[in-house]
């Protein structure tokens, strides 16, 4: 059992998991909730301008169908979402190919 768990952990692509979980979190996030915790070093140092701040809120607004508001919050929200979806698709195909080459013949992990 322990070896099976180790094999599954080796197989997982953590980058893919992080991107998918992050987008799911943004989809369920309330974009109107103000005052949230931030990891932004610019905001934490007291700067008022940061080129990345608002990007998550912009993507959340896209998921909620509020496209004009999304563009007003951060104009690159649509582009960031396209880039993230394309990265998820690319990583999925890479992992599927790797899974088929390693485990396709035996069918077990």
Structure description:
- The protein has 109 residues and is mainly α.
- It is 66% helix and 0% strand.
- The chain has six helices and no strands.
- The protein is elongated, with a radius of gyration of 18 Å.
- The protein starts with a helix and ends in a 6-residue tail after the last helix.
- The model has no long low-confidence stretch (mean pLDDT 84).
Produce the secondary structure layout.
Elements: H1 2-11, H2 14-28, H3 41-44, H4 55-63, H5 67-73, H6 77-103
Helix pairs in contact: 2-4, 2-6, 4-5, 4-6
**Major β-sheet annotation:** none
Quantity of strands, as a count: 0
Q: Which residue ranges are poorly predicted, with pLDDT under 50 across at least 5 consecutive positions? A: none
Helix content: 55-70%
SSE-based structural type: mainly alpha
Order of helices and strands: HHHHHH
Termini Cα gap: 11 Å
Shape: elongated
Could you tell me the mean pLDDT? 84
Mind telling me the C-alpha Rg? 18 Å
- Strand fraction: under 5%
Number of helices: 6
Summary keywords:
6 helices; mainly alpha
Short description:
This protein is an all-alpha fold. It is built from six helices and no strands.
């Amino acid at each position: 059992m322990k070896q099976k768990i180790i094999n599954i952990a080796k197989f997982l692509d953590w980058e893919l998991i992080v991107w998918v979980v992050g987008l799911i979190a943004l989809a369920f996030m309330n974009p109107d909730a103000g005052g949230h915790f931030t990891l932004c070093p610019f905001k934490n140092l007291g700067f008022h301008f940061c080129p990345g701040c608002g990007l998550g809120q912009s993507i959340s607004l896209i998921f909620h169908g509020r496209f004009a508001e999304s563009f007003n919050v951060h104009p690159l929200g649509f582009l960031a979402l396209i880039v993230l979806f394309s990265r998820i698709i690319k990583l999925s195909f890479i992992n599927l190919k790797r899974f088929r080459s390693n485990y396709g013949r035996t069918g077990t992990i």
